[in-house]
């Protein structure tokens, strides 16, 4: 039994591929997809597409078209329904869903791990800053406790306000006012 892809069927019917897909999607029970989700048409299905094309050319809308049903097709569909309760496609679909879920979980774990590492690095930086601030505060406290000892040791004389000439004093205040 020869099969045709959507493009080949469209060329044979002299319509666009989109039209063939639209017709096939209108009657999903009669036109099956392969494992990749592409339509594959056999001889009887091409005949159905020709029937659909003829009906549309006669002015019938796609919703009004009723496809002819052969007795052999009825018995085949009844046998399929009894023999295979879960088609292989559903098992493959479930396997793919599980794989996608596993992949999604793995990516979520990777994202969380990356965020934890980033937060850990930020916390380390904050700890270092706190340690530096504590050292600076301790250093300032030590310096504030030592001025008594410095006053005992004479350094250079501290200039007083009276020692500054008046012109400099006036210039200094003018910078503020």
Automatic annotation (TrEMBL):
Gene Ontology MF terms in the entry: DNA binding
Family matches, as Pfam families: MerR_1
GO annotation (BP), single: regulation of DNA-templated transcription
Organism superkingdom: Bacteria
Keywords of the record: Coiled coil
Domain (HTH merR-type) ranges: 4-66
Keyword Coiled coil: yes
Coiled-coil positions: 90-146
Entry protein name: MerR family transcriptional regulator
């Amino acid at each position: 039994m020869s099969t045709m892809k959507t493009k080949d069927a469209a060329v044979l019917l002299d319509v666009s591929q989109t039209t063939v897909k639209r017709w096939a999607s209108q009657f999903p029970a009669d036109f099956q997809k392969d494992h990749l989700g592409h339509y594959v048409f056999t001889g009887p299905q091409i005949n159905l597409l020709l029937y659909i094309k003829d009906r549309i050319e006669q002015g019938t809308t796609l919703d009004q078209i009723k496809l002819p049903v052969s007795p052999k097709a009825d018995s085949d569909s009844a046998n399929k329904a009894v023999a295979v309760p879960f088609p292989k496609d559903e098992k493959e679909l479930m396997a793919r869903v599980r794989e996608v879920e596993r992949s999604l979980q793995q990516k979520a774990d990777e994202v969380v791990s990356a965020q934890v590492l980033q937060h850990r690095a930020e916390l380390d930086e904050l700890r270092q800053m706190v340690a530096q601030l504590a050292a600076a505060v301790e250093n300032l406290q030590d310096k504030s406790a030592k001025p008594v000892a410095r006053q005992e040791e004479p350094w250079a004389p501290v200039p007083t306000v009276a020692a500054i000439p008046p012109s400099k004093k006036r210039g200094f205040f003018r910078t503020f006012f």
